[in-house]
Each structure stands twice: as structure tokens, then as C-alpha cells.
Amino acid sequence: YSTVPVIAIDGPTASGKGAVAQAVAAHLGFHYLDSGALYRLVALLALDNNWQQSDELTADKISELVHWANTLNAVFDVEHGGEYILLNNIEVSARIREEATGNMASKIAVCQPLRAALLQRQRDFAQSPGLVADGRDMGSVVFPNAPLKIFLNADARVRAERRYKQLIGKGFSANMSDLLHDLQARDARDMSRAHAPLKPVEGAFVLDSSSLTLDETVKAVLDLYAAVADSTAV
Ligand code: CDP
Ligand code: CDP
């Protein structure tokens, strides 16, 4: 699906995918795709329309999701020395990172027509000289021919602590036991869904970052990529 090299980084919430993928992309001069942000943007539209976490995904709701995905008006800008995201010309950089948004994203992400509607938009990020993409199904569905696939994992408690620090650092309030509970619920839903479930795809390198620093994890991915690039001359 793409002629440029893609590094696919999949894994559960707060395993470090985003931080690692951005650092690897910066190091290689590659583009970066945060696929979860697309699901989070559609989740924001659902929340703006007063959807509840407990709502059933009826046929009407599914067509609404597909419509939002097809008409998604989003701007991603990482040049501002941080993340800057616009949805329908309104800045949502902070709201998109709230746990409520992530939980709604995980809820709507079970919907296959929504996933199909977001597919091409994700593939369009594969531009020269290459792409680092993070999410749940980068290696399995979106970029199945990626020369390097990583499954990044870490203990649930370590991940909850990372997310806690990250949220507090951004000025949000957070509670460890709620975070751990939500994170485990989200993992369970992401792993058990029928379409594009979260699991290491064949050929993926499983990397456990529980006891690694961010820099060590980034280096591990760069080393793996150097080995792959050497052997395939990409
Ligand atoms: O940062 P975190 O891992 O918490 O979440 P994210 O990557 O922003 O993704 C939010 C939710 O979107 C996940 O819980 C998944 O259910 C869904 N998602 C997905 O289904 N497929 C992707 N490629 C990326 C995210
Ligand atoms: O994208 P994902 O939800 O998988 O995680 P993230 O938002 O990239 O990372 C969660 C937090 O863990 C960030 O603040 C990272 O700096 C931190 N972290 C990490 O990613 N890797 C480590 N080995 C240690 C900390």
C-alpha cells in the first residue's frame, strides 16, 4: 500500500507508542501518524453530540460515525513545539487527550465501517522519505507491508503510572485507581473486538518497555530499523 518505508508501532494504551514513534520519526526525518488521534477526533464529535459511553451503536449512529470520518476537518501541527490540533477550526489539543475522549474512542473503534472510512486517510500519511505510524492495527491492517513492525508493551501498572504523570503534567486531574481500571477495560475491549483487535501481528518485534527509559526504547527501535534497512536496502 505504500512504496516508502513504514515503521508500524502498535500496542496498548500508555505503552509509549506516541512518544517513541515521534522520537524515531524525528531521528530519521520521517513523517509521523498518530492514528489514535483520528479515532479521538471522531470521539470528540460524538461527545459534542452528547453520546454516552453506555449508548448502543445503532445503525443510525454508525452512519453518523462514517459521515464524520468522511468529512473530518482536522489539522495536525507539530511545529509549535508541542501538539496543536484543530477540529473544524477549533483547537482541541487539550480535549483530545482527556481520558473520557480516549474511552469514547475505544468504544467507537469497534465499528468496522468507521475503521474502513479512516483507512485511506491513514495511508495518505505514507510520504517520502518514510513514515512512523502508531496505533493498534498499523502492522496488521493499515500498513501490512511495513518493513518493521513493533508491538510495544509494558505492565499495566507501569502504564497507568506513566499516563498519570503525563495527565498531571498537562494540568489535568487524575486518579491512579480510576486510570488503572479504565486502562484495563480499554485493553480488554481493544484486544477482544472482532475487527482489527490489538495483538502482535506475525513478524512483529515484541518490545517490553516496563523497565526501559524512553531513550532506551527509542534506541531499541532505531537499532531494529537499522538492521531491517540493512538487510532489505530500503
Ligand atoms: O494513547 P492511547 O494508547 O491511550 O490511545 P490512542 O492510541 O490515542 O487510541 C485511542 C483509542 O482509539 C484506542 O483505545 C483504540 O480503541 C482506538 N484506536 C484504534 O482502534 N486503532 C488505532 N489504530 C488507533 C487507536
Ligand atoms: O501513545 P501511548 O498511549 O502508547 O503512550 P505515550 O503517550 O507515548 O507515553 C506515555 C508516557 O510514558 C509518556 O509521557 C512517555 O514519555 C512515557 N514513557 C515512555 O513512553 N516510555 C518509557 N520507556 C518511559 C516513559
From TrEMBL:
EC number(s) reported in the record: 2.7.4.25
Catalytic activity: CMP + ATP = CDP + ADP; dCMP + ATP = dCDP + ADP
Keyword hit for Transcription regulation: no
Ranges where the Cytidylate kinase domain occurs: 7-225
Chain sites annotated for binding ATP: G11, P12, T13, A14, S15, G16, K17, G18, A19
Subcellular location per the Swiss-Prot or TrEMBL entry: Cytoplasm
Protein name stated in the entry: Cytidylate kinase
Pfam families reported for this sequence: Cytidylate_kin (PF02224)
Organism (species): Formosimonas limnophila
GO molecular function, one term: ATP binding
A GO biological-process term: pyrimidine nucleotide metabolic process
UniProt keyword list: ATP-binding, Cytoplasm, Kinase, Nucleotide-binding, Transferase
Top-rank taxon, per record: Bacteria
InterPro entries the UniProt entry points to: Cytidylate_kin (IPR003136), Cytidylate_kinase_dom (IPR011994), P-loop_NTPase (IPR027417)
Family (UniProt): Belongs to the cytidylate kinase family. Type 1 subfamily.
Top EC class of this enzyme: transferase
Annotated GO CC locations: cytoplasm
